[in-house]
Structure formats: structure tokens, C-alpha cells
What does this fold into?
Amino acid sequence: MRIKRTFTCGELRSKDVGKKVSLSGWVHSKRLHGGLIFVDLRDRYGITQLVFKPEVGEEVFERAKRFHHEDVISVSGTVRLRPKGYKNPKLATGDVEVHISDLEVLNESVPLPFMIEEETTAFEDLRLKYRYLDLRRPPLQRAIILMHHIRQAVRSYLSSNGFLEIETPALMKSTPEGARDFLVPSRKHKGKFYALPQSPQTYKQVLMIAGFDRYFQIAHCFRDEDLRADRQPEFSQIDIEASFVDEEDIYSLIEGMFEYVFKETLGVELKRPFPRMAYKDALSRFGTDKPDTRFGMEIVDITAVVRNSGFGVFRGAVESGGVVRGINLPGCGSFSRRQTDNLIDEARSLGAKGLVLLRSASGGFSSSVAKFLTEEEIRGIRDTLSSSDGDLVAIVADKEDVACRVLGELRLRMAKRLGLVPQNSFNFLWIVDCPMFEYSEEEGKIVASHHPFTSPKPEHMEFLESDPLHVLSRSYDLVLNGAELGSGSIRIHRPEVQRRVFRVLGLSDEEMDEKFGFLLRAFQFGAPPHGGIALGLERIAAIMAGRSSIRDVIAFPKTTSAYALMEDAPSTVNDEQLNELGIRLVEEEE
It folds into this structure.
């Protein structure tokens, strides 16, 4: 390079007027006006307007005329104030421009598959194929930069609180922890496999046993599972473990960390302590274990009000052991017939048998169902749901889990449609008193709700074998704006308790020793009480950046089918590589 950068494209201000400067970056736009050429030059710091005049010299002026979008150039010139009336308040550099005296074209760009803009209509698959172009867009650059600052703030806070950053292996033993492992074949030990870590769970517990009483790591994790907008096959988590702690210690530590991170990166003050809610209450009030508490419209139980109702749907649900639950949709009493029919169809698609809709009007209900309800039932429903004239009451009569789940999803959808979700608001919530186990219909057995190393509540220990599905654990989830940021727990630290939990999960003594023998052995040598949490870094960053998908805060994400479009992976490998590993591919039968 002949011209060396002395300032970035987001740096110049009115105080720099008169300075001779050099800038480097990408040609964002070009305009010809009044015999002059105006160019917006962009780098990750911002945009600066360049002015090319004919008197700069024919060669430089003519070359500027031929600029393409995304040509890479270096320029030298003098900083001038923009003329009165031409300042741009939308740009940090909007008071000034650089009058160019010298130009160097460093690289030319071919025509772009999509424009580098603040927002784009380009399909995501196209943007992922040309990810290096997509990452030039300012919103993604801001998100990636925010991710960097979050990492630095987390490290600073935890280090200042006595935590050591310790790296754990990326090649480990395959253990059943929920999702499928990514397996790595061993060339040295043919027929045997490593697994990529789903989390550093067992390693961080071993670190506690080793005496490193405060550990953290921004850990790279891998899970071979079906993907959604908030899932990727590889992701990062803020992994934390500490010895001689209880739940209150973890709550205080993590709340302090988020208070510090939000203040340092966004300048946002968080309110502490974060609210707490029992798992069963979250399901009952919001239909989910990760409720969005930024708005109301909570699910309300009206079973007692309509238990003996003349309306057969309500009475029949109660008599069969079900419930009647409802939500109030403010201002929706004016919905058209098509809109209400669509709501009913939505409820059915979510698994409900139907949806009863009652329009609140004139102190009662305007609905064909209202004639089956007594005045006392009408008054009770309106009062219980705090429904006013002009509102619409939505009711599901079904099994409790179905009613809550359906209403919980309708609550979220309707809040978005009605504009009830406040922006730039951050509502944290701890979910506590979570079940230790759950029954998996898919696997046909009891599985761990959190993971098998979670400690049961001491008062429920006696029910481990006799009534495992009613045992509560010492686990906790942290929720932000309806997204689960992560889970944690106080761990089991006694080998006999760990074996009891493994037995509930159907593991034989031989399987325990084969899969977790190293951990059970370590527990015998004075394991301290310990606990921790793992928080999804990308989910945190996406919410803080105001992005709807974690793909926007990952430099090189996969698609929802776990495919890397830019580099075309996964891909086939040659027979020689497979032979070295002792692997033979078998074609799937059609």
C-alpha cells in the first residue's frame, strides 16, 4: 500500500477540519452532482463522505468515476466542514467531508449478489453463502462487536470475583447427556471414538474435586440435534462452577454478572434481585417454563367459576378431570368473524379441541355461548380475567397441560400482533423448584429433566426410588424476555447419591462404571459440595443486540439443516482417509 490509513471512517469530527488525513475502506455509494463526485467510504467504524473535484487531476477524477460498489480504496485529502444545509445528522461524521488529493485502488469488486445495506431483502440462504458480504452490513457488524464486548465484560467480572478461566478438552468420552453426540473416530485406536463435548459438565465437576473452587470458561459446545432459530450444532456457553455454594450464592453471582455486563456494554441499569417463579406456577400462569413477563395477559383458572355450568364443554372438561383456563385479549372485542375463526383454527392447530371466544360488552358477554351461562358465571369470568367492555376472552377447556400450552402460545402470538411487547426492555426471571425427572414418551422411560448430575432437594431424597416423578431438584433456569438463557444446579457430590439417581434413570452398575466411572471414582476422594450454571452466550448477545436469531451474532453459522453454505460442509472425504480410520460407509436402504 502506498497510502497508509491515519484515521478510520467513523472518527473524523469538526475538530479535525484542516487536517491532512488518509482513509481506507469500501466504496459504499457514489453520486455525481454539480461536476463533483461524492463517495461514501465505509469501514467497520462508520462512513465518511469523500469529495472528488476535477482539479484533483484527470487520472484520479476519472478513476473515481469508475468506482463500483465495494471497491477497496485508500485516499488522502483534507478535512472540510460540509456546506450549510448539507450536514448529515444520521452520521457521526456528518459535519465533515474529506476533499481528496490522492487515490489508490487496492482491489475492485465484481457485481454483488445483494447490496450491503442496513436491512436487506436478500434470502438468508444467499446471505449465508456469501457470509463475508453479509458480515459487512452494519447491523451484523454491531452484533459481532457486541459479542466481543460481552465476552470481555464476562471475563472481567468473573476474574475480579476470584474465578479462574480453565480450558477443558474438545475430545472427550461419549456420555448420554440428552442430545446426540458428534463422534470423532480415532485413527490411533481404530473402532473407538471421541465425542465433541455437549458441555464441559463432568470436567468442571472434576475441577471442583481438584480444588479449583471457582472456575469459568467460555466453552465451545456441540450437539447433534434438530435446529431452530435459537439453536446451532455448535455454540458457546458461559460455563461457571463454584465449590461450597448454595442456590443463593449462584443467584447473587449471576445477577451481579449481568448487572455489570449490561452496564458496560449497553449502558443499561438492571434491577436486582431478579424475580423468582416456581416451575409449576410458570406453566400455570404462562403455559411455558420460559415466560415472557414484559406484558400481562396471564392465563387464569376459571374452573371453579364454571364447574357446574350449563355449558356442556365447560362442565364436561371438569367432570373428566380437566380444567377451564382463559386469557383476556384487550381491545379485541371488535375482531371480525374471520379473525375469530382464525384464532379458533390456531388453537386447534396447537392441539386444543376448540377455543371458546366471548366478546365483553355492556357488562356481560356478546356470544352465542353466553345464553348457557348464568349471570353469576358471566360476572365471575369477567372479574377473574379482569375483562372490560371491548375485550375478547379466549377460553380452553381441556387437560391442564393442553389448556396451558395452547393459551400460552396464543398469548405470545397475540401480544406481538397487538404491539403489547415493549421494546428495549429486559425482564429477567429465575425459574426454580423444577422437577428432577420427567417421563419421555419417545424413549418410553424416565429421563433427567436437567441432567443426571443435578442434586435432588434434601427433603425429597427419600422419594427418589418410590416416587421419582414427584421429586424436585436443586436446579434453576434463567429466563430473559421469554428465552431461556441457561440452566444450572447444585450438583450431586456423593457417589452413593449419584448411583441412586443413575438407577432411577435405568443404568445398571456396569453401565455407570463404563460411562461415568471416572467421575464416581473422583467422588470417593473428598468431593466438595458444588454448583454452577451454563448460559448460552449467543442467546444473550442476540437479545441484547435486538436480533431475532442467534445466527446474526455468530460469524459463520449453519443453516437450520446444519449445513455450512459458504464452505459447502459437511462434505465427502476420500477412501484413503476413511481407510486410515477403519471406517466403511454403508448405503442407506431406500
